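Q: Focus on the chain.
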Amino acid sequence: MKFDAAQLMRVAEEVLKFFYTKGARSVKVAYDFGLERSFCAVSTKDILLSAEEEDYLRRVFDGPVQPEIANYYGTLAGRRRDELEMELVGTMAELEDIQNEEGLGVVVVLSRREMEYRSAHKK
């Protein structure tokens, strides 16, 4: 399994745990693994996020992906069951979209560029 795909899975697990702590009990996770970039969507219709919770997610994923930190700590993400590691996974993926609407629930779409593509296309 590609390292980048495994890290995106760990990020999705943390978002799933975040939703669970907010009351979600039915959560869907979908992946689209591409050659250059992979995507993950985590969704639930059980909850709506407050404005503060949505802002928190946007802040967590606001910075650029930091491959050095992600490579070093990425194997640890998703291992703890007693607390969230959102700040850590924020260094591992990019936020593509958040939808948070009454009647539709919450959808968080994340992406991660493949390591081979990143290193081959440095400027």
